[in-house]
Design a protein that fits this description.
Layout lengths: L11 E8 L4 E11 L5 E9 L5 E7 L2 H17 L3 E2 L7
Antiparallel strand pairs: 1-2, 1-5, 2-3, 3-4
Length: about 90
């Protein structure tokens, strides 16, 4: 049961970059999750498709700051050739 307000912004963004000529298949995932102390965590996970990959976590006091950084990382990766998976945001 959800006790807080409904949130319309995406919690997860999934990007990928594929180039068969270079044998490249990579993913980049940006998740926003609440922490136990009332803040939020932006979790960045990336690597080769089918592998576990690497992960970094960034803590924020509020959701707006986390969303700002999530959007900035997504733009940065799109400039590097990543694209949204199926043009959708993962719920």
């Amino acid at each position: 049961m959800q006790t807080g307000p409904m949130i319309s912004e995406p919690d997860s963004v999934l990007l990928d970059r594929r180039d068969p000529d270079r044998n490249m298949a990579r993913y980049y995932r940006l998740d926003i999750v609440p922490d136990l102390f009332g803040g939020v965590v932006l979790i960045r996970n990336w690597g080769r498709v089918g592998q576990r990959g690497q992960e970094r976590q960034h803590w924020f006091a509020d959701r707006a700051s986390a969303l700002h950084h999530q959007a900035a990382w997504a733009r940065r990766k799109q400039r590097r050739g990543y694209s949204m998976v199926s043009g959708m945001v993962v719920p």
